[in-house]
């Protein structure tokens, strides 16, 4: 083929093609092998045209200058080739329309493909999102099915054991039936033999009686007919007859002696059936008696526990009467508290003297906090929390309690949303700082952090602030916060299920009925929940009602005021949660005895002793809270008992199974 040079004249390459004519019937798209000269060695020795070399050199330089690490590297590589093709089109005047049409068609096709790809990009993102959601749903379903499969396996094992017991019982009963059948068959055979022997005896007796009558008749006739018969012969016959009579009498007496106590079969079967009925009735009465005995023992135990509780309460009352001091006049505090007597009355309502001291200290600390303009920085040492690392003074934002509570609730909301999105739980101190930096900027983040921290530290009576502060400083685990919220949410659903009319109110009777299944739910979540604890919740739900009112607005039990303070009903649930965990750990401490240090095995044994129903996974979780190392290291490590109890108190530690019976002696003592 011929190439057009840059000097506007035809150049031949290869050189020997200059005198070569065009092939007849040549197809433009034929294979290059068909158009290649036969002498390939000569082709390789012929130099290329200068214009072709310039184009190739230009293409190599352009490709070297490209940055192929970018995302659109393929489009960048296409640009030099597009320019080379433009040069060809410009130089080949004759073929320029055809080549331009070819180029435009390729460009239109590439543009169409780009548009198609750009339109499919959102679909690709949507497919990825849907794929992730489906994967999460599949994992959730697998977890749910795994729990159901485990339950079915346990039920299968239980049924298999039950079947084995039934088979053993069936085998035992079959053996007894066979033994009784053999015994009945033997008795039946013996009775048949005796029955036949009795018939034979009666037949013999009849024959003997007939023979005696015949003998007498013959004797009378003999005397009349043969008066001269031999007396000796008659005497001998009489003697033999008397001997036979004696033998027959002996046999008759023996038969009477042997079969005098024999019972007829019909009477025997009747007595046997009557005996079976009496036996079943006796077993039924015995079961009723055992049930009544158990109920009696239960009532006796309850009576004993009640008596002990009464004695304990009486003892505590006497101690309180001896040790109590005159109650301070707390009304004087209203003179120094902002808001006057009305606000102090709301703050002091239903609180003990110790709690009133905390309220008073909180009010004083809050007032001093508002008067401060700056906070001293705590430095940037490793012991300083990450959200307080600052050198120099920090400005006080002077927030109200409502502002602090709103910010903390928003932090919890953002953190939970992030956990659901990523599937991982971020550490609260780092998330706390990142949230403030994201919302208020890096320069103001420390001002907000110090202000929020000091407000939370000085307001222990506010649940939102105190719980966030305890988790932020590491005093308690975050699991406690989520567990308490889950418990309250479950209780709301239970109460709503009892409200068939969806009116938001329940009568006292409905509340009692609703708390009956709720009692079962509490038993599963909190095995130490007692009858008086349930009664405390009922009393807390009627805290602001008159004794004559029957309707209870259960939705209002879960409301909070603008400062995040809950109603007494929710506060009682949270206080019972903490109290029951403390009782559980106190029982664990008593089981460890005088030990100063404890290893993993001793701690596991103590947990299994006080809580026999605890499962392996929960036990490993509790052990992990104490030792805070891998499972392969816990067997050799020992920690002080007090340290172990402090770490357990900070985590979500609860009883798994019901408490032992003897533990109920202290039921509600000190609650």
From TrEMBL:
Key words of the record: Coiled coil
Protein known as: TXIP1 protein
Residues in Translin-associated factor X-interacting protein 1 N-terminal domain copies: 56-167
Organism name: Asarcornis scutulata
Any one annotated GO CC term: cytoplasm
Coiled coil spans: 149-183, 268-302
Domain of life per record: Eukaryota
Keyword Lyase recorded: no
């Amino acid at each position: 083929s011929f190439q057009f040079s840059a000097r506007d004249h035809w150049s031949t390459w290869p050189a020997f093609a200059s005198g070569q004519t065009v092939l007849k019937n040549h197809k433009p798209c034929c294979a290059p092998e068909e158009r290649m000269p036969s002498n390939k060695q000569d082709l390789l020795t012929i130099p290329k045209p200068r214009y072709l070399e310039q184009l190739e050199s230009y293409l190599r330089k352009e490709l070297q200058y490209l940055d192929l690490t970018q995302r659109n590297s393929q489009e960048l590589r296409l640009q030099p080739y597009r320019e080379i093709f433009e040069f060809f089109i410009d130089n080949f005047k004759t073929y320029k329309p055809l080549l331009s049409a070819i180029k435009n068609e390729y460009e239109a096709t590439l543009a169409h493909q780009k548009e198609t790809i750009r339109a499919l990009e959102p679909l690709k993102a949507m497919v990825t999102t849907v794929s992730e959601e489906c994967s999460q749903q599949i994992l959730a379903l697998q977890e749910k099915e795994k729990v159901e499969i485990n339950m079915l396996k346990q039920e299968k094992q239980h049924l298999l054991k039950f079947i084995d017991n039934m088979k053993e019982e069936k085998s035992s009963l079959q053996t007894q039936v066979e033994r009784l059948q053999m015994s009945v068959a033997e008795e039946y055979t013996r009775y048949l033999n005796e029955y036949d022997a009795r018939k034979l005896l009666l037949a013999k007796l009849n024959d003997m009686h007939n023979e005696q009558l015949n003998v007498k008749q013959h004797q009378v006739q003999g005397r009349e007919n043969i008066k001269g018969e031999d007396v000796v012969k008659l005497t001998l016959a009489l003697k033999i007859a008397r001997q036979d009579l004696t033998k027959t009498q002996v046999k008759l007496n023996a038969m009477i002696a042997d079969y005098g106590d024999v019972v007829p079969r019909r009477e025997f079967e009747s007595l046997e059936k009557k005996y079976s009925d009496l036996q079943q009735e006796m077993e039924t009465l015995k079961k009723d008696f055992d049930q009544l005995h158990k109920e009696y023992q239960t009532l006796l135990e309850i009576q004993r526990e009640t008596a002990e509780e009464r004695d304990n309460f009486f003892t505590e009352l006497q101690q309180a009467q001896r040790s109590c001091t005159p109650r301070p006049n707390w009304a004087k505090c209203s003179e120094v508290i902002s808001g006057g007597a009305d606000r102090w009355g709301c703050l002091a309502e239903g609180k003990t003297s110790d709690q009133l001291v905390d309220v008073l200290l909180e009010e004083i600390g809050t007032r001093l906090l508002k008067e401060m303009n700056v906070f001293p920085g705590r430095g940037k040492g490793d012991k300083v929390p990450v959200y307080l690392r600052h050198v120099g003074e920090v400005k006080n934002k002077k927030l109200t309690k409502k502002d602090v509570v709103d910010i903390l609730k928003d932090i919890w909301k953002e953190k939970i949303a992030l956990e659901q999105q990523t599937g991982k739980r971020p550490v609260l101190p780092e998330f706390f700082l990142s949230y403030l930096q994201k919302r208020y900027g890096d320069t103001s983040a420390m001002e907000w952090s110090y202000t929020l921290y000091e407000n939370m530290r000085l307001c222990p009576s506010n649940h939102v602030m105190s719980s966030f502060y305890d988790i932020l400083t590491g005093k308690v685990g975050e699991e406690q916060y989520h567990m308490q919220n889950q418990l309250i949410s479950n209780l709301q659903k239970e109460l709503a299920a009892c409200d068939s009319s969806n009116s938001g109110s329940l009568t006292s009777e409905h509340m009692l009925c609703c708390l009956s299944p709720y009692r079962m739910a509490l038993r599963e979540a909190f095995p130490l929940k007692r009858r008086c604890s349930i009664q405390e919740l009922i009393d807390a739900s009627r805290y602001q009602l008159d004794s004559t009112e029957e309707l209870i607005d259960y939705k209002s039990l879960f409301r909070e005021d603008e400062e995040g303070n809950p109603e007494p009903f929710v506060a009682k649930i949270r206080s019972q949660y903490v109290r029951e965990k403390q009782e559980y750990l106190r029982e664990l401490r008593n089981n460890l005895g005088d030990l100063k240090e404890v290893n993993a095995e001793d701690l596991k044994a103590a947990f299994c002793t006080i809580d026999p129903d605890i499962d392996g996974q929960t036990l490993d979780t509790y052990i992990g809270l104490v030792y805070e190392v891998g499972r392969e290291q816990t067997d050799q490590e020992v920690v002080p008992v007090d340290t172990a109890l402090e770490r357990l108190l900070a985590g979500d530690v609860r009883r798994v199974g019901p408490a032992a019976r003897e533990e109920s002696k202290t039921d509600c003592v000190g609650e």
